Amino acid sequence: MSTHTAGAAPTRREQILKEAARLFADRGFHGVGVDEIGAAVGISGPGLYRHFPGKDAMLAELLVGISSRLLTGGRRRVAETAGPAGDVLDSLIEGHIDFALHDRALITLHDRELDRLRESDRKLVRQFQRQYVELWVEIVRRVHARLTEAEARACVHAVFGLLNSTPHLDRPGALPGRGAMAALLHRLARGAFAAAAEPGPPSDALASGALPPGARSADAGPSDAGPTGAGPGPRAGA
Questions:
Q1: Residues 6+ away with beta carbon under 8 Å from 138
Q2: Whole-angstrom distance between the N-terminal and C-terminal Cα of the chain?
Q3: d(Cα 237, Cα 82) in Å, to the nearest integer?
Q4: What is the pTM of this model?
Q5: pLDDT tens digit string along 138-177?
Q6: 229 φ/ψ angles, rounded to the nearest 5 degrees
Q7: Is 45 or 127 the better-scoring residue by pLDDT?
Q8: Which of 26, 27, 61, 152 counts the highest number of beta carbons within 10 A?
Q9: Residues ≥6 apart with Cβ < 8 Å to 96
């Protein structure tokens, strides 16, 4: 789920967005000037205005764009994956892991800067994210029929948080090789879904509304965990 077509050289516009995402994630939206973004791609700050009217437009395209691509990619994987539902779930997990490892800056950016978008853009982001979550919920319930819809949705949000934890592993050596990390995240995701489907007190407690010690009730405040954040990451909304 990268920001450009696999195998194709990035366009100037895509280069600008990539550098803007990196700089915004590192220093915050207001900590980065247009001139700095331009310098990162080898053009003058004013030259950026041939591609974007301003930083706000870059931020909107980054956050709306990644939510749209996650949804489109997920739908494509569901449509194109032959075989049992477990294979479809594996494909969805692989696609999200690709995003989480390749676009870590966007996860950070979503966490910090989503509220800076215009209301219309925020609504669009949340619309795409809700649809992405429900796509997963349907497949998870095919694989784990014991889960109720509410349980499956809670599991999907939890797994997104797990997969989107990659920006927090930014110390040198914290991440193993890309292949090893992808395999580890995949095992963790499948293991989380399987554990949730096992009979026992945790599943019964969730179904009844009870919470384990230390867990936060939904009544304690809004929960915006979603597909692109560790605790939305990108927030799906409800």
A1: none
A2: 24
A3: 31
A4: 0.79
A5: 999 999 999 999 999 999 999 999 999 988 776 656 667 8
A6: -150, 160
A7: 127
A8: 152
A9: 1, 70, 74, 160, 163, 227
